[in-house]
Amino acid sequence: MAQGTVQVTHTGTSRWRRRTGEYASLAAALEAAADGDVLTVAPGTYRENLVVQRAVTLRGPEGSPGSVRIAPVDGVPLTVRASAVVQDLHVEGQDAAAPALLVEEGAPELTDVRIVTRSAAGIEVRGGARPTVRRCTVDNPAGIGIAVLDGGGGVFEECEVVAAGQAGIAVRGGGHPRLERCRVHHASGSGLTATGENSALEAVGCEVYEVRGSGVQVTGRATAHLTDCDVHRTTADGVTLDTDAVLTLADCRIHDIPENAVDLRSRSVLTLTRTTVRQFGRNGLSVWDPGTRVDANQCEIFDSTGDYPAVWVSDGATAVLDSCRVHDVPDALFVLDRGSRADVVDSDLSQVRNTAVSVSDGATAQLDDCRIRDAATGAWFRDHGSGGTLNNCTVDGTQTGVIVTKGADPTIERCTVDSPAEAGFYVSAGGRGTFLNCRVRGSAGYGFHVIDGCRTTLRKCRTERCARGGYEFADGGPDAASGAGPDVEDCTSDESAGLRQPLPAPEPAVQTAQQSPGLLGAIPGQRTTEQEPLIAAAEAEKPSRTSKAVLGELDALVGLDSVKREVRALTDMIEVGRRRQQAGLKAASVKRHLVFTGSPGTGKTTVARLYGEILASLGVLEKGHLVEVSRVDLVGEHIGSTAIRTQEAFDRARGGVLFIDEAYALSPEDSGRDFGKEAIDTLVKLMEDHRDAVVVIVAGYTAEMERFLSVNPGVASRFSRTITFSDYGPEELLRIVEQQSEEHEYRLGPGLSEALLKYFTAIPKGPAFGNGRTARQTFEAMVERHASRVAQLEEPSTDDLTLLYTEDLPEPM
């Protein structure tokens, strides 16, 4: 049939006219139209389920956008199965099990279509369909904004998802769309998500923001390429990669993220080029697991809003930074765990409040031609097996340039440290290290400071204008092994006597390695499900509850029967003492400071928070808030700073509870010249001077805390009682999982409770056992496995979305 024009008009008798024929519905007119025909639809609301099966043009009247509404009561309002043109329509759907606009075949053009719906998806593309979608908007608060499934593709230009009850744009089952200048916002799931092998997503000039989830999520062997895109204002991570995902970010901007800006794990690979990452609450880049890798070139990571390292590499992952800038962050680069590696080339690390580069737990870092400026510590190789190379780097404006402690053995070659406040290079506690052709200039302390008989190698090093001396090699003491101490060759100094051996030095101006167990136990950003910033800011004042209400919350906690009895007994004594005073009677003096002992994850922090609230409800404390600190928050890196830090922490806790986790780290067994004693002395004095202003709770493993109290009788005398937190049994761990399920609206399927009991019984209960944390991690792992399973279902039921089964249990730890 030759191309013709079909004019479709809405009449008072609801009849349709095509040339000389009359039709009872728009569907009938579509059935009668031939390829190439144009159907212009008059304004009105059409309660029909339309199917376009020919290459026609279906459009609303010019100059009246939104005047044609396709709004059936159920089913798919508009299905396209041909290379048709659809424009200027308003589509409404009400079927939660069906999409509002379904494209199944052909290469149609959809232009200026507005979809306002409560459907499974606003637009769904599947099979061999390759649509071109221009200037379309989707408002679907009940489901996915745009879904591209089962090999579907197409191009979306200048489209906008203004609301979505799930993901904004979801790609799975081998879908592979291209997005150009699109916007996704106000989604209740991820902004963009691609999952499954052969699924691919390409986005150019797009923006994702205001989403209640990750901005971009790529999982399960999917790939994605984002160019010139913005991701910001999410509630979860900015970008998440998991399970062999591959993502390329070029000229992108990720910012205003409360969690990790980018988090990847499980063999995922990320390539960043000319991308900026800023204003993130946790890590800028968080890289986990063997085989996981980040390659960043000409990128900038800066302006952290939290207390965590900008770049975190752990569990055997690899990160490469080439020509990058990291600045205005608490810590720049943390590499930890054997097999983890960071390679940094021609990059700048500056304005770092703590440590620019930290290497621990057997990890490796290699820095070539890098510049470190304005940091407390330039690089710190912390412990045995940790090492790497610093080659041709400059370190300027630090407290200490490079620290090597506790068996770490890096190679530092052709590096220069300018103007350190304490020392250029500092080695202690069995640290080793090889220093070749290194320079220290203008140190306010020593150039090279090697103590404890460390077997460090120095070759052709040079110091200039060092206030306390170019080289200080303190003895290891009478117990030092024969031949211990540095191996020095061809080293020079601008002092007239050349390399000199000064008198025994005063206390070292940086931390000694004996404290590193405590430090590493509280590295900022180290991941647990209970991760919090190192120094919790005092909580805003809340309406106070009665002690009865708070004790009710305590009683609702799983297990902890003996702890509950202890806290109740203490509370009763305080309450009766208060009433005796009101009656004019003498009241027994009750010491309110406590010692909490037990394994991690047994609820010590939670009980401390409730204890503070109870004391506030009884009028014993003014606020009752909790300030949680550890050794790294109290002990400074140079002389005099420890007392200041401890005083600041105490002041933040004024009117509430100061909770010191792993308190035994303040008094290590091999303390030597450790500054932890200064923190203890300061704390004891503050507790005496301000006994009514702050309640102090010290916590840690049972054996370690017993040693801590035995070697510090001044501290032990300040505490009224020790409360022991026992490990959770399998039944209690199961109850925690049940609580988590109820809270997150999941249900345990048949047989899962019994399987969980067996699972928790079989888990090793060694030092790594996390108690309640293990239960929560198990629940999170089940939810992840459930999501991977349910994501493959085309139309999941409510049971599918809520029931967890035994197959969702992770492998035993």
Automatic annotation (TrEMBL):
Listed Low complexity bias regions: 474-486
Domain (Carbohydrate-binding/sugar hydrolysis) ranges: 41-172, 313-474
Family in the record: Belongs to the CbxX/CfxQ family.
AAA+ ATPase domain span: 590-729
Top-level taxon: Bacteria
Organism: Streptomyces coerulescens
Region (Disordered): 473-524
InterPro entries cross-referenced by the UniProt entry: AAA+_ATPase, AAA_lid_6, ATPase_AAA_core, Beta_helix, Carb-bd_sugar_hydrolysis-dom, CbxX/CfxQ, CbxX/CfxQ_RuBisCO_ESX, P-loop_NTPase
One Pfam family this sequence matches: Beta_helix
Gene3D superfamilies (alphabetical): 1.10.8.60, P-loop containing nucleotide triphosphate hydrolases (3.40.50.300), Single-stranded right-handed beta-helix, Pectin lyase-like (2.160.20.10)
SUPFAM superfamilies in UniProt: P-loop containing nucleoside triphosphate hydrolases, Pectin lyase-like
Keywords, alphabetical: ATP-binding, Nucleotide-binding, Repeat
Protein name: Right-handed parallel beta-helix repeat-containing protein
